[in-house]
Specification:
The protein is mainly alpha-helical. Helices cover 49% and strands 0% of the residues. It has one domain.
Length: 78
């Protein structure tokens, strides 16, 4: 079965992650924003999701701890 944002990715974000990042305009809880194929954010396509992944991979998001590798792998596979 194909991975989806709602089933596989959204549950990885805690409520406090969504609240914190929404203040910066990063809408982690909004599937349409995360999956927008036209969003750029420095990437050719799906820029919102790729921008979020870049921050997760660098360990700057969430601010209190780095995601475990398994979660990063799931996000990347999505």
């Amino acid at each position: 079965m194909a991975m989806t944002y709602a089933k596989d990715i959204r549950p990885l974000f805690r409520p406090q992650d969504i609240t914190c990042m929404s203040k910066a305009g990063v809408r982690l809880g909004d599937a349409a924003w995360m999956c927008d194929p036209a969003a750029n954010n420095g990437f050719a396509h799906h820029g919102n999701a790729r921008h979020v992944y870049a921050a997760l991979e660098k360990g700057v998001m969430p601010p209190d701890k780095k995601w475990p590798q398994q979660a990063l792998d799931t996000y990347r596979a999505w």
